Amino acid sequence: MSLVPSLFGRKSSVFDPFSLEVWDPLGAFNSITRDLPLSEFARDAAAIASTQIDWKETSDAHIFKADLPGLKQEEVKIEVEDGRILQISGERNKEEEQKNEKYHRVERSRGKFLRRFRLPENAKMEEVKAAMENGVLTVTVPKQPEPKPKVKSIEISG
C-alpha cells in the first residue's frame, strides 16, 4: 500500500519511496520452510551460534564476557592472531548417556561457535588473560597508556 493514492485504483509498477510495503528478500524461503519442523541440527546450531559476547572498554583494559553455560574450560579456545585479532571459539558436544532411562525431552544443544574481534592499536596483545567461572568466560586485554603530549616552552624574545 502506498501513502500516495494510485490513479484509477491500479497498482503502479513504478518504485514508490513512500510505500508502506516492505520487501522481504527471504519471504519465499520462509513460506516454504515455515511449516517444516526444526531439525535437531538446526536447533543445536541456532543455540550455539547465538553465543553473545559483550565487549566493554574501561580506562585500562578491553573486557570481553561470554555466557557459556555447560562448557568446560577445555572446550573453549582463545587465540590472538596477527593484526590484533582476538578469536574466541568453542565446541559443545552432546553427551551420550545410555542408562536405559526413558527421556521425554532433551534440550541441551551442541555445536561450534567462533567470534572474532579486531582490537584497537592500544591493545597489549601479549598480555591477554582469560578466566572462566560459573559458565561465564571473561577475557581481559590490557590497554597501553595513552602517550602524554610533549610540551615545549618557547621563549619570547624582545
What order do the helices and strands follow?
Answer: HHEEEEEEE
- Gyration radius, to the nearest Å? 27 Å
Largest sheet: number of strands, sense, barrel closure: 4 strands, antiparallel
Instruction: Name the strands of the widest sheet in spatial order.
Output: 1-2-7-6
Contiguous low-pLDDT stretches (5 residues minimum) are none
- SS-based class: mainly beta
Measured distance between first and last alpha carbons:
78 Å
Envelope shape: rod-shaped
Separate helix tally: 2
Number of strands: 7
Helix content: 10-25%
β-sheet strand percentage = 25-35%
Please tell me the overall pLDDT: 75
Report on the structure:
The protein is 11% helix and 29% strand. The chain has helices at 27-33, 40-49, and strands spanning 53-57, 61-67, 76-81, 85-92, 111-118, 129-133, 136-142. The strands form two sheets. A four-stranded antiparallel sheet has the order 1-2-7-6, with no helix packed on it. It has a three-stranded antiparallel sheet with strand order 3-4-5.
Task: Summarize the SSE layout with pairings.
Layout: H1 27-33, H2 40-49, E1 53-57, E2 61-67, E3 76-81, E4 85-92, E5 111-118, E6 129-133, E7 136-142
Antiparallel strand pairs: 1-2, 2-7, 3-4, 4-5, 6-7
Q: What is the gist of this entry?
A:
By secondary structure, the chain is mainly beta. The chain is 11% helix and 29% strand. The strands form 2 sheets. It has a 4-stranded antiparallel sheet with strand order 1-2-7-6, with no helix packed on it. Strands 3-4-5 form a 3-stranded antiparallel sheet.
